[in-house]
Amino acid sequence: MEHNEINIKELIRKQILGQLDAEEAALLEREKVRYSEEEYDGMIIEELRQLEGQLPPDPLDDWEPDFEHIIRRGNELRSKRRRNLYMEWGAAVAMWLMIGGTVVYLFATKQEIKDILLLDVACGHLEGNTEIPVLESSCVVLLGDSTLIRVDQDQFGIIQQIGDLVISRTDAGLLRLKRNAMDGQEAPSTIKDVMIYTGARQQCVMELEDGTLVRLNAQSYIRYPLLKKDSLSIGFSGEAYVQALGDDDGRPLAIATRNGKVTVQEGDFVVRSTEDYTKAVLNTGELDLYSYKLKEAVTLRCTNDFGMISPSANSPKQAPRDSLISASNVDFEVAKMWTKVVRTYEDIPLRAFVDEMSRWEGFTIKDWQCVPKDKKINVSVCYLNDRKEVYAAIRKAGVLLYEEKGMISFCAEDNNRRMVFKEWNSGDKSYTSHKLEGGVQDEWR
């Protein structure tokens, strides 16, 4: 079979579903070497997203949870929420870092806003100035390329042990990764690491073997090494809030991304990584942001220091290269807004809001170039709300959008074909359905 005739994504899908035969397994092993680790990870994540609800049963499917224990622990945690983990981190507003070549758009100054659309009524039982409860953490654990374990909110105790790495979930909902040399098992030679992945509307709070706490945002993942090494290094893509507590032996934590890595011994920060860029905002401590291509690093030392590795604008004749950018006075609390029960966005660029909500809700933007660059938005959104409220906030900003099969378009040619939406009525807390025929101009007559 020729290489260009092989559908590697179909092979990955069959492997995840446990439908791969020996010949196909051998073919997949041969083909995967043609891709970088990041490219292959991306294809696995894409197939996982498409297989929501179709995943094969895991060994815990027949497990019966202790519901009385779950309810009791939930009530205890809610009563102690003000004294729970992370309470020292305050309320925030949203951040957007927009790149134009080597120019970064930074907004760090709060403005007084008088008209904020409130869509947070469903969060009435939770305090808006708190983080999403750890007890609600959930994720998917992928061992190697094919063994999937769903970790739901009602699972506690040991989830899996592979080699000396033990994955468990505490009564508080914390996913814990620890080494247990006493009960260690020989690790399979075919498995090098464990992937922990979150889907849309999921966050996962985990404790690494060195004590570091990581809150993984929706549609993000880490790759955790199966074998213990002198220092801990994890692969990462997506968005995370990290609290590095410091290794007893002074060894740093390394977070490797597609184009660089973050190295830290002690401190807390937000990091975000995509195929194109890596950026971080520091709260406490000190970290280094290193670019693979430039072989250079910037050090963040002060609260609200910001660093980014981003692609430079090149002519077709120039070899691709990166830029390493640093800045100060970028509001850390802005960067950490996505961790909150109620996310309040005050006078921020619409692009920033759409970017944040698309990660959480799981919708895709057809063409980012069509998202208006000059629009801003003021809204307060509960993490329990659905995408209808998000669309309502966008329309409140005076922008029309078109949705089809989970894809959102702001492009005029799509809006001109058809527009169906529900308008939020703040007075009676209801929606009014509208259908536009003939284009956006009909709305403005």
UniProtKB/TrEMBL annotation:
Domain FecR protein: 196-286
Keywords: Membrane, Transmembrane, Transmembrane helix
Matches recorded under InterPro entries: FecR (IPR006860), Ferrdict_sens_TM (IPR012373)
TM region(s), chain numbering: 85-108
Origin superkingdom: Bacteria
Protein name: FecR protein domain-containing protein
Origin organism lineage: Bacteria, Pseudomonadati, Bacteroidota, Sphingobacteriia, Sphingobacteriales
